[in-house]
Specification:
about 200 residues, 6 helices
């Protein structure tokens, strides 16, 4: 009987409680050890020329960038949701953002001012299949401007009809499953004013 209870508890804990992803501390240590490399990788991604005769997806092939990413333990960098011009929460900036995204320079704008997702390597260490949430993963997020965090929520810049702006939960730790974790929700942990850890589920 004790064996069955122990086994039941183990299965329940493994499926519904245990987070199989590496602890935040591992990612934070990686970032701190290679902070200059992370910063330089972001700079190169933002500065890479976006023009009709260049494939922006090959930005990492320039010079020693591939070696830099490998040294820092970065699998890749890509633009993500959110455009962060200076003073990102003002009404004037909201209009500027909409205008810039509509014009032909939008690709350059997104490269320079978009939130950036930095995927750590090796990929399979920070990405896991689970019965409860199907897939879960952790990565780094860089914000060109330091975002506001109010009452445990990250405020994204408003655009057009987005009133109020989108909000995302910011937690003190991502080592456990968040309470009432919604499907496809991403939660964040701030590690520096412009740098966050992010954990998402794909269910």
């Amino acid at each position: 009987m004790l064996f069955i209870l122990t086994l039941t508890f183990f299965i329940y804990h493994s499926i519904w409680v245990r987070n199989p992803l590496p602890a935040d501390e591992e990612l934070i240590t990686k970032f701190q050890l290679h902070r200059d490399d992370f910063t330089e990788a972001v700079r190169r991604y933002q500065a890479y020329p976006r023009s009709p005769d260049k494939d922006p997806s090959l930005w990492f092939t320039e010079g020693d960038t591939s070696d830099l990413l490998k040294q820092a333990g970065i699998e890749g960098i890509s633009s993500a949701a959110g455009v962060w011009l200076p003073d990102p929460y003002s009404a004037e900036t909201e209009v500027k953002t909409d205008n810039k995204i509509r014009d032909l320079e939008s690709v350059k704008v997104l490269a320079q001012y978009a939130t950036l997702r930095i995927k750590p390597s090796p990929r399979d260490r920070y990405y896991s299949n689970t019965l409860r949430h199907v897939v879960v993963w952790k990565d780094f997020y860089f914000f060109p401007q330091a975002p506001r965090v109010e009452e445990g929520e990250l405020l994204w810049p408003a655009r057009g009809s987005e009133k109020p702006s989108m909000r995302s939960r910011v937690l003190p730790s991502l080592n456990k499953w968040p309470d009432q974790w919604k499907r496809f929700e991403c939660v964040y942990r701030r590690i520096e004013p412009q740098w966050f850890l992010r954990m998402c589920n794909g269910h």
